[in-house]
Amino acid sequence: MAEGLRFACQPGCTECCRQRGFVYLTEADLVRAAEFLGMTAAAFEKKYVYRTRNQRRLRVPREAHCHFLLDGGCSIHPAKPTQCRIFPFWPELVESKREWKKTARYCPGMGQGPLIQIDSARAQAREMREGYPELY
Ligand code: SF4
Ligand code: SF4
Predict the structure, then answer these.
(1) Structural domain boundaries of the chain?
(2) What separation in Å is there between the alpha carbon of 97 and the centre of ligand 2?
(3) Is the distance from CB of 97 to CB of 111 less than 8 angstroms?
(4) Helices marked H in the chain
(5) For residue 56, which of 87, 88, 89, 82 has the smallest C-alpha distance?
(6) Could you tell me the pTM of the whole model?
(7) pLDDT of 101-128, one tens digit each?
(8) Using alpha carbons only, how large is the chain's radius of gyration in Å?
(9) Which ligand is located closest to the Cα atom of residue 14?
(10) For a pocket test of ligand 1, which of 5, 6, 14 has the largest count of ligand atoms closer than 8 A to its C-beta?
């Protein structure tokens, strides 16, 4: 990858929330989102989370891509899961020009805005790896 990547999330856009794929949660994400909604972690988990031995992810509703995506955007924005907060600085995108370009086909913010230094992009990618050790 070059010495930096450009990115600026575009107002009003919700494309990344509409893509196929799972939204994984760290244990801390689960607690934070529950608190944000005024629920207990147990109640939040029962309603929204699918848990396996090593992973937690949001259940996928039949007709929509994410329970929390409303017309105005993410309804839990201040408490959204780590992978949503860090996007597009996921390890697989930061480390591959090809994957970055491919993802930029649906994310209009990639390639826009300020140049994010590669060290900063990699630090965010590292946070992803640390948050989801079961995925990386
Ligand atoms: S697709 Fe890109 S520009 Fe659109 S909301 Fe997601 S991060 Fe922002
Ligand atoms: S939790 Fe929020 S940011 Fe993440 S996919 Fe759902 S609506 Fe989008």
Answers:
(1) 4-130
(2) 25
(3) no
(4) 27-36, 41-48, 82-86, 91-94, 97-103, 118-131
(5) 82
(6) 0.94
(7) 999 999 999 999 999 999 999 999 999 9
(8) 15
(9) 1
(10) 14
